[in-house]
Specification:
710 residues; mainly beta; Maltoporin, Chain A; 22-stranded antiparallel β-barrel; five-stranded mixed β-sheet; 43 strands; disordered N terminus
Length: 710
């Protein structure tokens, strides 16, 4: 007996040995718009999802077809649906070997990344080559870049909601992947009719296999001295108490290790970083009737970073960490054409902005205290459909309270920054979809968003060294107004799909670090070194997709502008943001040569990020003086990369389904910039000034074997 899942008008999934029928009362991509009625049904097989769901939804995002995304190029041996989001339009990856993700001009820390409802601080491994989400466990993904409903908050730019193990297996399933870059193993099983569980682990070994191979092939030997490794583990269970009640839990822990042998242009050597996420959560759901259901989340998420580097003959040790405890309750009520959802959430967070210590001078270290704050929110939204019009109207009210700083010294006088501070935010949300006919629609959305804590980049060397900054009497909450609209159409019985979207964003109270590294040792509050400003971004996104046939795929093109304006930067004049990219193109092609052979390729192109580098130099009193023509006036080289993948499905053996995959990352060995820098050298009164580029990721071939045993 098999169990299947569909996202069309009926949804079937497993509850122990029984099957449950879910009734979706309207066509929507909101997974929470579901109430269910438990009943025994015969075995049935259905298709994957409603092919017109992206046309008919009200949100500016999509429910990800996970099985289809797993057919994308298995780059580096991993068919990672989360990584595939970077090819779907609206998302721009900062650079090669970078974990930063920017959505429609937003900053990297403005994305709400969820794993079964638990926030994840850093969603990628090895600076972006892999995601923290194990592809063997992902059952459902939702990506929202506009029209974000009121149940989501705390971030400005996007929501990426990943759910593991929604559909427990009827029998024991063992899956895995063995490759040159990394390997993984996962187990899904059950005990009796009510309890099901999973466990999974992954690890890489690039420096032991791939780097020596590249060295023998003649690749730049400096690159082969760098080390990039990661591991992670997952575990969880579902327990069904009875009709309509389910308890779920999940656990995740991951760790990254990176070591850059030398960045001589910065006088850096022996640089290493370790960072990781730690997530634990429980969910309790109950269906009271066909009209009313509830869902409770209790979550813990943590993030820590430990870096060491040698700069100008000084050893620096950098640490930062964050812990968050969160509770959220959602209540869903269906009344006629109305899908009403309301709820509340509250959280307590503790953040260490950053600590820096030097090995040469024990007294030279930062002295920042933990920031502690509580926050809460209540929301109400209603989605209803009348004729061709679908509306989603909501309101979210958020409350933030920074706790007074703790000090063990009685004679220490608290500054204004150390004292308690509260903020209240009102966040209206509206999205609408109008069906022009049965195959085309127009969507409009507007929304206000608040973000009360930020990660601000400290050092621009590509390493993940950032500062946690919470709202206070000095740093006010960041906020955003986001307006979006677009046209969506299905062609030729949904074999083709096209869309055109335009967006405008207006940011307030954005933060930039305004000091040098040495300034961190002279202040007691990190907020004293922050600049606050505003920004705006606007652009157009075009998409053409072929859904069916032996050849399928899509191409996305974004034309965008992204500006910032700070009173303390560039004389108060507006300037292009560091993550401004005028043109961004991503294309994917999948070709099923035969039922067993599949070849696919991805190509990405983006104009270079902006940098603040000098345009010229001159000598005064034997000293080099640099001239800047404007802030962020320098543009990095354009980024482009081609990845290819060839997969062969092996004949089934002893109930084992398996396939071999050969993939090549960065096929033509493009030297995409990891860092652009300038240097001045003086030798016997001869001065040399130059701008040079460092890159980290060469061509990376990989071969892997993936298996699945039921």
């Amino acid at each position: 007996m098999r169990y299947f899942l569909t996202f069309s008008m009926l949804l079937f999934c497993a509850i122990g040995f029984a099957q449950t029928k879910y009734q979706v009362l309207k066509d929507t991509t909101d997974s929470s718009s579901i109430v269910h009625k438990v009943q025994e049904i015969p075995e049935i097989e259905v298709s994957s999802k409603n092919p017109l769901s992206n046309i008919k939804s009200s949100s500016g995002g999509v429910f990800i077809d996970v099985p289809k995304l797993k057919k994308l190029p298995s780059i580096l041996g991993d068919s990672d649906p989360f990584k595939a989001l970077q090819y779907m339009g609206g998302i721009s990856q900062a650079s090669d070997a970078s974990a930063n993700i920017h959505v429609r001009g937003g900053e990297n820390d403005q994305n709400l990344i969820l794993l079964n409802g638990s926030p994840v601080e850093n969603p990628t491994h090895i600076l972006g080559l892999f995601s923290v989400f194990n592809p063997d466990l992902i059952d459902q993904m939702q990506y929202l870049k506009a029209g974000i409903p009121a149940e989501y908050g705390g971030r400005l730019s996007s929501v990426i909601d990943v759910k593991n193990f929604i559909n427990p297996p009827f029998s024991t399933e063992l899956s895995g992947n063995i490759g040159l870059i990394a390997s993984r193993l996962s187990l899904k099983s059950h005990i009796g009719n009510r309890f099901s569980y999973y466990a999974a682990a992954r690890a890489s070994y690039i420096q032991y296999v791939v780097m020596p191979l590249l060295l023998k092939l003649g690749v730049d030997p400096q690159l082969t001295q760098n080390s990039f490794e990661y591991y992670d583990i997952n575990a969880g269970f579902n327990y069904y108490f009875g009709t309509g009640t389910k308890l779920s839990a999940h656990y995740y822990k991951g760790q990254d290790m990176i070591q850059i042998a030398e960045l001589s242009q910065f006088s850096f050597e022996g640089n290493s970083s370790r960072w990781g996420n730690h997530v634990l959560g429980m969910q309790l759901s109950h269906v009271f009737s066909n009209q009313f259901s509830m869902l409770h989340h209790l979550n813990f998420s943590g993030f820590d970073l430990n870096s060491t580097m040698n700069w100008l003959a000084n050893d620096y040790r950098i640490n930062t960490d964050k812990k968050a405890y969160n509770y959220k309750a959602d209540f869903i009520y269906l009344a006629g054409n109305h899908n009403i959802k309301t709820g509340l959430e509250t959280s307590f967070e503790k953040q260490l902005p950053i600590t820096i210590r030097t090995g040469s001078n024990d007294s030279l270290q930062t002295n920042f205290r933990y920031n502690q704050f509580v926050s809460g929110a209540v929301y109400l939204r209603d989605e209803w459909e009348t004729g061709p019009l679908l509306l989603n109207v909501g309101i979210r009210t958020s409350l933030y309270h920074k706790l007074q700083a703790y000090t063990s010294s009685d004679d220490y006088e608290l500054s204004a920054i150390d004292k308690a501070k509260s903020f209240l935010g009102l966040e209206p949300r509206l999205s609408a979809r109008l069906m022009l006919d049965d195959k085309s629609s127009v969507k409009l959305s507007a929304g206000k968003h608040y973000q009360y804590n930020n990660r601000v980049q400290l050092i621009n060397f590509g390493l993940p060294i950032e500062i946690f900054v919470a709202a206070s009497s000095v740093t006010r909450p960041s906020s955003l107004w986001h307006f979006s609209g677009g046209y969506f159409r299905s062609l030729y019985d949904n074999h083709w799909e096209i869309s055109a979207e335009a967006y405008y964003k207006s940011f307030s109270n954005l933060l930039e670090y305004g000091g040098t590294l040495s300034d961190l040792f002279s202040v007691t509050a990190i907020e004293q070194l922050m600049y606050a400003g505003k920004g705006y971004a606007y652009g157009t996104e075009l998409m053409l997709r072929k859904n069916f046939g032996k050849i399928a795929g899509w191409i996305n093109y974004t034309l965008g502008w992204n500006y910032r304006q700070f009173d303390d930067i560039n004389d108060g004049k507006r300037y292009l943001a560091s993550n401004d990219r005028r043109h961004d193109v991503s294309a994917i092609v999948m070709y099923n040569i035969t039922p067993r052979w599949n070849v696919s390729a991805t190509f990405v192109y983006a104009t270079g990020n902006r940098l603040n580098l000098p345009r010229s130099w001159y000598i005064i009193d034997d000293k080099v003086v640099l001239e800047f023509s404007g802030y962020n006036a320098f543009k990095m080289p354009d980024y482009h990369r081609l990845d290819v993948s060839l997969t062969y499905k092996l004949p089934q053996w002893q109930n084992i389904d398996s396939e071999l995959n050969l993939s090549i990352y960065n096929l033509y060995n493009r030297a995409n910039p990891f860092e652009v820098h300038y240097s001045t050298k003086t030798e016997e009164n001869n001065y040399d000034y130059k701008i040079a580029m460092t890159y980290l990721t060469p061509i990376l071939p990989s071969i892997s074997w993936t298996f699945h045993l039921k």
